[in-house]
Amino acid sequence: MDPQQSHLAALVALITNATQLVETRFKTSAQPYVPTLDDTEEHPLDKELSDPALRAAIQTIEGACAQLCATVARPSHTIVNVLAPHCLNVVTTFKIADILEERPEGMHVKDLGARVGIDPEKLGRILRLLATRHVFREVTDDVFANNRLSVQLLSTNPISSLGLHFTEEAFGSASFLTQTLADPEWGTSRDPRKTAFNKYTKYEGSLFEYFEGGTPLGAAMGQRFGVAMVGWGTAIEAGNVVYEYPWDKLPHGASVCDVGAGIGSITLQLAKAHPHLKLKLQDLPERVVQARDEVWPKQCPEAIAEDRIEFEAIDFFTESPIAGCDVYYLKNIIHNWLDGPSIKILSGIRKVMGPNSRVLIHEYILQHATPSSAKIEPSSLRHKQAPAELLSNYGAGRIRQYNLDLVMMSLLNAQERTLEDFVELGEASGLEFVKLWDFGEMSAVEFKLAGGVAPE
């Protein structure tokens, strides 16, 4: 048997055996039934002290489930979900993973502490918490080494920038969320300048104004944010859109306009995977210059040489994108804005669409934690429901999009949206819903012109 399969099978067996013991305890109790998460009445076992075997079984289930998930999931996926932001911030700021990369056998906390100039005993406690969550490995007492997850925190990996963004701007702002909600004026505001971020930083402008040079620190964080978004795309497997949307069915020379592209991380992948496409990259002038002069000449010079990529600056609140493109692609754009600005962006695109053009909005699509009562028909256009034993939205299996929804609230007074929300936005912008594409963690909503000519 393959060693990795053997390890997974051993974890599954631990879970199975421990679950059988727990189930037996419930069924032989004063009320012989196994409760579900929907129950609100207290079960007799909830008030009793657990015997040693039951305690051990529950600890085994919790530990084995977490280890199984950490083992099988992509490391970039898991590291972004680690709920120890203060510890992640310390090890990322002090580049602990980089130092341990020099010593694969591990390094004692005394040497690590001396190297970075912080108290070794405190550093050891931080690393032990992370190792308990399978980030880093404690080789022997107080000696730590990198592992599959901690190497994601190397300073050369964009995930490390993402970790700093979340543990500083995002979670720092979230710590002021209660205070913001309790504020008589700010609590009900949708103003991007009256957010938990503003209370946290005491900066009066919006997050994007902060990133665009509102302060020297904000400008530095803005540069880091650009790198962080590359790491975010890796963690959430945003690149699935490159292979699972039928780009190959578009005719030779079909045009795809990436609106608000940044440096064009998805467009770069499209250029390499689908060289028959003509690509247009549009964003604010500084990002377009960065893409045209720095990123694309290094990462995809053939697209420039073959005239398959066009760079053009845009302010999508005051200008429409390049006219007549076959697909207008927006990734993680609409979730930054409330309905009014979003309708302005989409209406600007609608003005320049041809009769067969499509708009593809690539974002998280929130689902309710109960079977949907949505009126969108046929049902094939909606998300597939999770197995009946789970919450309809997969619960913790898709928790990140709900976490991000609260991050957007804290940073910008913005939001992630449901499919119904997107359909309403489209209708208000003169667009007609065509299809929901499920790309795994992220999805995409496809629109055409309302009353437009359907493609052949």
From TrEMBL:
The keyword Metal-binding does not apply. The keyword Methyltransferase applies. Residues 254-372 form the O-methyltransferase C-terminal domain. Residues 81-155 form the O-methyltransferase dimerisation domain. GO terms for biological process: methylation. It comes from the Eukaryota. InterPro entries: COMT-like, COMT_C, COMT_dimerisation, SAM-dependent_MTases_sf, WH-like_DNA-bd_sf, WH_DNA-bd_sf. This is S-adenosyl-L-methionine-dependent methyltransferase.
